[in-house]
Design goal:
The radius of gyration is 33 Å and the shape is elongated. By secondary structure, the chain is of the alpha+beta class. The protein has 27 helices and 19 strands.
Amino acid sequence: MRLIAFAALLSHWRRRPLQLLTLVIGIALATGLWSGVQAINAEARASYARATSVLEQGALRQIVSKDGSGISIETYGKLRRAGWNVSPVIEGSYRFGPAKIKLIGIEPLSMPQEGQVASISTASDLSDFLSARGQLVVSAATAAKIRGNTDMSIRVSEQVPDDAAFLDIAIADGLLNADGKISRLVVASEQRPELEAIEYIASEVSVRETADQPDVGRLTDSFHLNLTAFGFLSFVVGLFIVYSAAGLTLEQRRGTFRTLRSLGVSLPALTTMLVIELAALALFSGFLGIVLGYLVASALMPGVATTIRGLYGATVPGTLSIRPEWWFTGLLIALGGTAISSAQSLWRVWKLPILAAAQPRAWARASTRSLIYQTAAGCALLGSALILGVVGSGLAAGFGTLGCLLLGAALLLPGLLAIALKLAERISDAALTQWFWADTRLQLPGLSLALMALLLALSANIGVGTMVSSFRLTFLGWLDQRLAAELYVTAKDEDEAKRLREWLPRHSTAVLPIWSVEGSVLDEQLQIFGVADDPTYRDHWPLIVAGRDAWDEIASGKGALINEQMWRRGTASLGATIPMPGDWDAVVVGVYSDYGNPKGQVIVGIDSLVAHYPDVSKLRYGIRIPPEQVSSLRQRLVSEFGLAETAIVDQASLKRQSRAVFEQTFTVTGALNVLTLAVAGFAMFSSLLTLSSIRLPQLAPVWAMGVRRRDLALYEVARTLALWLATFLTAIPVGLGLAWVLLAIVNVEAFGWRLPMTVFPLDWLWLGAVALVAALLSVLIPVWRFATINPADLLRIFADER
């Protein structure tokens, strides 16, 4: 009996295959975009963990210099003589032609097993690694970049991340001009008992526990949280499809439920059948969604890798691995989402009288109370967003503001539309126009979820588009200011750099050294740059806040500039004295914009930099010359001076490369915007499609009174356009509010800089046009149905029990 009853329930899908397709696609889309984002995040975090473990021996404690200036060989010797089992590491960035590689110089004989590279395991491997010629252990991708740009032998290892290389510490010391200064000491996990405490042996160093070590995963949390928010938004929009389709499906089968109950099927048995049916559909659709998510993640992964490399300097592979955790969570999210979307409909099946027929008018009246509650909840959420935006702090408060704003606006939309439709009905004179507005209000409960999904998608597109366009406009202007030199050159070694310093002043207007060191300032590892006393900086480096004669203070060696990130975090303020590595102090005389850099940065005078850090690398220079002489000087640098062509970059090329990186950085955001809008369009399509099949009782009387079927179809188009326009106009202020939160709260908390907000109305029109096309496509099949419906089907309505 139960099998027969279950077969009768399932026969609904055979009669309505398009509705089954809608439900399956809704679950698959919701699961696919969510699992795709989770797959990207899981791959990136696995890459961070591998890089930390391999490159930084992250599983082991480290000994570092307190002032960030490095550890002397004498200190290393004292620790070894005291019995401490430690191994030295010298690391830094080095250029092999155009490729910038992170070098990690290790001493393999003393390095603990946990910090070893797998490719240095045999005596032969060790002999090659320690040879006088030197050997680089790199990934296959890095090997392809540096071949032909080094005389050292190259060994490929799958264990080493891209853009990094292991080599003997003696070779690294020479390449990086470290002069014996050790970057850090790795502490073996096994030590002799009763050793003297390190602070008593060498007070100039400190022990950094594994939990306190720099973690790029924490640095990129804001980016992954952003991706997760997009994935969750797409998931919610997809669930609107499931909610709408499941609700209308159960509503359509009310007659079947009544018949089965009359034949003796108990309410628990009927509910169990429906749960099993939905669970089976969820598992099947969830599997399709996971496959879709894998394809989406594979397509987006190269853009994500570029974004993370550009924003944070972290290396992430551009390929995707299949990881069980996001497959499992994808299926769970499909089941959970379907359960949430179907819970209300199942509750109605359980509670409503069995002999109650499906009456759309009664359904609309019953939804009035829930609409009032929903509107009140929307107002409360918008109020919460306002409070969080004003008094909240931190990244969590920023995303909380975003969530309350979007969800509150979505919940408020149906109530606003109902009020607008009621007003339009009252001011209408013609009977047919009154019927049109009343009928539109009658359909609002069935379309509200699709309209809410469309509002979320449009608002997200407007908000994120405004943020990206504001960033682009600001970034391009900032590039024009910062990349003031006409040519940039990089010497291959100090001898060539010395010759450049002698040759360039005779052939250029000004030579601007681009020299920097890394050090610890106010407990943050950052870069310290030196700038020359030249009008270029005064004219092209606008300061956010500055004291009087800031540039004169920099030139005198007394002052320092800090970037916006340090200033907004409260690390340092204007007029504060900051201790610099090497036991000297500088006074903050100004703050400058530093877009794209999540870390702090300090600028001092070039003479002061060289005086306090005489070992600073002096390989890079900017050259000021009249623009018409750029080509000529470039040729002379190659032909007369003998500089490699790859070591010369002109301003236009550098700007072009920077813009390309910028555009690639937001490829992922743009793709997720498009996907979210596509899901919202499908939500509208599915809602209109399912509603069109139960609307004959409302259309038949109007047709019987003389309205042609073609006109009924046109009314459906007009209804869709009216609802689209109302939703689009509502999305503009919501999207602008979203953009403001992203720029003024989330961006500041996540990256440390604030961007000016610029609006782009033409982008809204383009987005509105795309949404209009999606709305018209969604109504295409229902309109065709109304225009071609058989008159006999309309007449049959009058014989129906309703």
